[in-house]
Amino acid sequence: MEGWKVIEHASELARRGEAFALATVVWRQGPSSGQLGSRAIITASGELHGWIGGACAEPSVLRQAQQVIAAGKPRLLLLGTPEQLAETLRLGGAEGDAAQAGGTVKEGIAVVPISCQSEGALEVYIEPVLPAPHLVVVGSSPMARTLTGMAQALGWNTALYDWPAFSAELASERSMIVVATQGHGDEEAIEQAVAARPAYLGLVGSRKRGTAVLGYLAERGVAAEQLDRVKVPAGLDLGRTSHVEVAVAILAELVRLRASGDLPASAPAQAGAGHAETAQAAASAEAIDPVCGMTVTVGPAGRPLEHDGVTYYFCCAGCRSAFESSPASYAKKETRC
Q1: Is the alpha carbon torsion for 204, 210, 212, 217 positive or negative?
Q2: How far apart are CA 138 and CA 190, in angstroms?
Q3: Residue 283: how many CB atoms within 10 A of its CB?
Q4: For the chain, how many structural domains are there in total?
Q5: Are strands 39-43 and 48-50 parallel, antiparallel or unpaired?
Q6: Shortest CA distance to 290 belongs to which of 259, 257, 267, 324?
Q7: Do the bridges between strand 200-203 and strand 230-231 make them parallel or antiparallel, or are there none, so unpaired?
Q8: Residue numbers of the domain that contains 198
Q9: Of 111, 129, 147, which closes a domain?
């Protein structure tokens, strides 16, 4: 996958509601297999589509991209030998010794020394592409239509269903659901909504009406733990308001909850899509190459080698061979990330 095909694939992932990162080579120093403008997509599970560099650069870009997806913030990644990075940072006005140790120099910039035989260097800009928040509005009232339009104006992935057309399969655990059936199938709509276990579930109606609806569902055997998560009435308490102001109050509550971190920053359009948690879990399986000091992936791709009951991992066959020829020289350097 090259060139514009990477962008086309990115558009397809975005339409499917999958989180991913787009990595672009913005500077290179030869010899390096990564070229200026080379692009790649990295999914939350660590799959790479496209090209940004060879075996030296790829593991670091994958690891950093998964962290970018989890954090939801872009990052500029500097890759090269410690000497190259020290010179680059010195010319840029940063502390050169930071490149020797690796890590973040300034906010949004990560420095990763690599021991690559080609001695090339790269700067890779990694940006997260997170699915828009997923809001499901159930009902056919003017307020329901107003709320749907307001959420769409924010760029949210918003769907409006009348109650008979709504089912739990239309939402996921990272969705937000607002039931605004207002007496036309309240109980049935809430029963379907709680089955989806959404991140937020609100019922438009009075507290008295909410008590009656939830009491009915409790008698039908719906778990109290699920019913306790239903917010009644949905939205901020603004007193007596019009249907337009009720829509504003509900949207304001959802925005406030997301901003405070009480709701997911992004919600896949379909259940089962990749989440930031997947990226964090995948990024944790790492080790330090005891020969060159690079961070490598734990697994078959890391060329595992067992010595004195400890499994070591390597960035390339050369480092593995060096370790095999003199394990006593390197064994104590190995540490797990």
Answers
A1: positive
A2: 9
A3: 20
A4: 3
A5: antiparallel
A6: 324
A7: parallel
A8: 134-259
A9: 129
List the CATH number of the domain containing 159.
Answer: 3.40.50.720
Same domain, 116 and 140: no
Structure tokens belonging to residue 312: 């070591």
Report which secondary-structure segment, H or E, holds 284: none
Beta strands at 20-29 and 39-43: parallel, antiparallel or unpaired: antiparallel
Closest CA to 289 of 261, 317, 259: 317
**Spatial separation of the C-alpha atoms in residues 292 and 288, rounded to whole Å:** 8
What confidence tens digit (pLDDT) does each residue in 97-147 have?
Answer: 444 445 556 677 888 777 665 567 888 999 999 888 899 999 999 999 999
277-318 confidence digits (pLDDT tens): 444 444 457 788 888 877 787 888 778 999 998 999 887 787
234 and 188 within one domain = yes
Q: CB–CB of 269/13 below 8 Å?
A: no
Same-domain check for residues 253 and 139: yes
Q: Are residues 32 and 124 in the same domain?
A: yes
Backbone φ and ψ of 141, nearest 5°: -75, 165
Q: Strand pairing partners for 151? A: none
